[in-house]
Amino acid sequence: MQLPPCPECGSAFTYELDALMVCPECGHEWSVAAAGEDDVIRDAVGNPLADGDTVTVIKDLKLGGTSSTVKVGTKVRNIRLVAGDHDIDCKIPGVGQIGLKSQFVKKVTK
Ligand SMILES: [Zn+2]
User: 11 in a domain, yes or no?
Assistant: First the structure.
């Protein structure tokens, strides 16, 4: 797992000290969300996802119980994050309301 860079100076040489993150270059200390609790949902390349984000599907996904496939490259707008195995709730035109796994999408940054 990679540690986040310092939010003050951008240094990558940060380290963990108990529940705090510490930057050795500027001395900034900050707290990170407790691991395991309120986990950030991330896409396939590690971008944190949020409600309302737009993502694209990075591989063909067969939908269980149907003959539909969500094609790679499909753009999905206005996602909603939910708890569970399929952690993205979304509506895909022509497919309907489905759940996606965050590891199969990539966030679209504007
Ligand atoms: Zn710093």
Answer: yes
